[in-house]
Design brief:
112 residues, alpha+beta, 7 helices
């Protein structure tokens, strides 16, 4: 788990601290999928068909333990679990939007 104390002690660089929280192949994609609404596990999985259920579960657990995602489990049959962003997770919206703009620009015109 990444705590503020650990970030303060281990990572004096703010970019390194951010990447410790959201770095990797899937965390930014998960956060981007949750940016506008609460989603069920199956919805997240369907939006990211290349991720295994095991890896999605692990990444969601890490995001939850780092305080970026809230997990709500409903006692129903079949079981239902929903994920949404915390206030801290929502504070990443400008970062995710900048990543989206950059990706859109460079995917449509890769030579720029």
């Amino acid at each position: 788990m990444v705590t503020k104390e650990r970030v303060d002690q281990d990572f004096r660089c703010p970019v390194t601290a951010l990447l410790e929280l959201i770095g990797g192949k899937w965390k930014p994609v998960i956060l981007f999928c949750l940016r506008d609404e609460t989603r069920r596990f199956g919805e997240l999985s369907a939006r990211m068909p290349s991720i295994s259920r095991k890896v999605l579960t692990e990444q969601l657990k890490q995001l939850e333990s780092d305080g970026l995602v809230i997990r709500v489990q409903f006692n129903e049959i079949p079981p239902r679990v929903e994920y949404s962003l915390t206030d801290l997770g929502r504070s990443l919206a400008p970062v995710l939007q900048a990543m989206e703009r950059w990706g859109s620009t460079h995917l449509s015109n890769p030579k720029n």
